[in-house]
Amino acid sequence: MNRQKRRGLFITLEGPDGSGKSTQSLLLARYLEGRGYEVVRTREPGGTSIAEALRRIILNPKNRISKVTEVLLYEAGRAQHTAELILPALRKGKTVICERYTDATLAYQGYGRKLDIRMVEELNRIGSSGLEPDLTLLLDLDVREGLRRVRKVSGGKMDRMERESLRFHERVRKGYLEIASREPGRVKLIRVKETPEKTHLEIVKVINKLVK
User: Fold this and answer.
1) Of 133, 98, 105, 129, nearest to 119 (Cα)?
2) DSSP string, 87-111
3) H/E element holding 190?
4) What are phi and psi of 12, to 5 degrees?
5) Whole-model pTM above 0.90?
6) How far apart are CA 141 and CA 193, in angstroms?
7) 3-state SS assignment for residue 115
8) Are strands 10-14 and 135-140 parallel, antiparallel or unpaired?
9) Long-range contacts of 31-34 (CB under 8 A, 24+ apart)
10) What CA–CA distance (Å, rounded) separates 197 from 3?
11) For residue range 108-161, what is the model confidence (pLDDT) as tens digits?
């Protein structure tokens, strides 16, 4: 069967701030394109004009946003992103690589903000139209090191979420690790290496077991 006539692969990259998701998304896209896959790279929050507008609201450090408002803004962006970009691409047989998706909301708003986990899971189901990744690559590294990298890359201009307390970011990482332990079939833990290239090689090992 022609690959392009089948539903495409949905791959997400997750991890604490500073774990290198954008870099690894780009390297993975290039790798898969080299193997003949048609790839769409995207991110959350964002990916479409409406979702990108919501991203600017959510991440603006000047905005004071309640926990519930925050999770609903994330889900509103996801609903638009999924309907407008992700699902159409998958139906065309394309491989979608997305930086953050439902696991991020569970980790950041569920574990980080301490919102009710079942509520967040239900909101995720609604916002994603029930779509689940075929594979999630969880990039894991020490929280302090991740935030150090963020400060270095941004020149100290950190967004609203990045500016949260160390304890918040520790809870987020713990949440991610718990998600990985519950869903080992879908979520593959990738320890971030000294260089992006070494981390990419670890990702390729996982990818090669999934794609032919």
Assistant:
1) 105
2) HHHHHTT-EEEEES-HHHHIIIIII
3) strand 187-191
4) -115, 150
5) yes
6) 9
7) coil
8) parallel
9) 31/200, 31/204, 31/207, 32/95, 32/97, 32/207, 32/211
10) 28
11) 999 999 999 999 999 999 999 999 999 999 999 999 999 999 999 888 899 999
